[in-house]
Amino acid sequence: MSELNYMANYERWLSEDCVDAETKEELRAIAGNEEEIKQRFISYLSFGTAGLRGTMNAGTNAMNIYTVAHATQGMADLITGKGEEAMKRGVVIAHDCRINAREFAECAAEVLAANGIKVYLFDALRPTPVLSFAIGALHCIAGINITASHNPKEYNGYKAYWEDGAQISPEQAKVVSAAIEKADIFTGVKRVKIADAIADGRVEIVGAALDEKYLAEVEKQLVDPAIVKAAADELSIVYTPLHGTGHKLVPEILSRIGVKKLATVPEQMVIDGSFPTVAFPNPEYKEVFELGIALAEKVSSDLIIATDPDADRVGVMARDRSGVFQCLTGNQMGVLLLDYIIGSLKRQNKLPAGAYAVKSLVSTEMATKVCEANGVDMFNTFTGFKFIGEKILEQQKKGNDGYLLGFEESYGYLRGDYAKDKDAVVTTMLIVEMAAYYRTRKMTLIDAMDEMYAKYGWYMDGIDNIYMKGLSGLENMKALMKSLRSEPPKTIADAKIIKIYDYLAKKVTDLTDGSVSDTGMISSDVLSFVTDMGDTIVIRPSGTEPKIKLYFLVSGDTKEGALVKQEAYKKAALSWVNT
User: Fold this and answer.
1) What is the DSSP string of 493-553?
2) What pTM did the predictor assign?
3) Which residues pair with 56 in a beta bridge?
4) In angstroms, rounded to a whole number, what is the distance separating the alpha carbons of residues 495 and 211?
5) Catalytic annotation on 46?
6) pLDDT at residue 1 above 70?
7) 96-132: per-residue pLDDT in tens?
8) Residue of 43, 46, 132, 149 with catalytic role
9) Which residues pair with 155 in a beta bridge?
């Protein structure tokens, strides 16, 4: 979006009658602080395929009822542009546990209703995958989810979905962004009171009946329904929703599949958007498991599962041979699930024709090796579960119903096509089923991972985040990517770079012979460097945060050898960023 006259914008918010007193009081408190005013009013939050995400405070460059209403007017323009039938099909709106989430969800409903668009509003917080499922179940044209996933408590977000249950396309995001920029944030937004819209039927409240339909679809994704029941007397699970939306549906699905020994972390079963027991409600971090570990020791559990606040990501800890709890990475869980699903289906003679899996291109290549060893196809996509959903739809249109699993290294997984976004509810169920299987073999998931390394080799997949905050952050990120394209490195550490994938230019350059070919994928700001040692380094700007992400996909004959290579690559790649 274009740069704004931030001081004039600030003064306008203070003078407008439609701006509430509390917001004005907050703005008066920063009077004279030009840098803070500039940060809040220099622009609008950028609206992309991931929607909006930002800290909650007053201003155009933040999450508040005015920017939520403004964005929703842009969504309304996209939908009304599709005609009356699309407006009648309507939009389903969900939210998670975050501060202001219900208020933002109702604000979005008010704007859509005022624009003549039918609205289905969940009666309370719901997991993100339930929203994705609801779009299809209710035959809606679109969906909106108020969530900032696993970001700190100061954040909130706004995710926009289309009729396929996946997040909106880049083209649709551009239409919405243009509509937002065209409409005045106050006078250009239509809005009606939520109570009036509910009373006259423009907004319909959605309740538990849809949860039942969703859970029925989740339960269908069991690979071998007999396994959990066989191990139920011995299998003990500790679960935490980290104060979020998994608190109800995760324990419910585990009960339905036959889990008998489920202990939930009581302090974290409390719905609270301030996340009082954790600094960051992110199941990637070991720190969020502290209460879970204490409970697991008390109840003698071998497995702890945590879902993030909107229940689309899953983190796991399991005991090693010495009895100590160890974290499993997103990549490790992806290959464990993939190997288990393939193996179980083969044992039952149920592996489908055309069997395939999908992963993001920055996720471990160990998954590719698992597929190759089992005669299963592997497809790579860009980061973002939307692209995994698109690949599933593409294969379905070709008549291939052999989809087994989709995953990203960032702890997101999906089995089944009832939703088109990652789902922590179904993943928790599958992890428990897999743990039950290994329990029958007297193994934990850590033992299972060690068995995988012995079979397929040591894959060490690392990631580094380079934050570029402030008003210059975006420009610095762009400058870095531009410089790596104009003068690409020829070596990294002791390895020679032999192939460069420039996904923005949609070309693959083979440095061994100078040949250039097409990536076969849409354009995206991602660079990938392949070395003569068979390793891959990927660099891309984050789509939701002010940071550059570096991925190191490394393998070796030994764990130590792979780790040494990975550290050498990291040091060299960080020098690119610093330069």
Assistant:
1) TTEEEEEEEETTTTEEEETTT--EEE-SS---S-EEEEETTS-EEEEEE-SSSSEEEEEEE
2) 0.93
3) 63
4) 52
5) no
6) no
7) 999 999 999 999 999 999 999 999 999 999 999 999 9
8) 149
9) 55
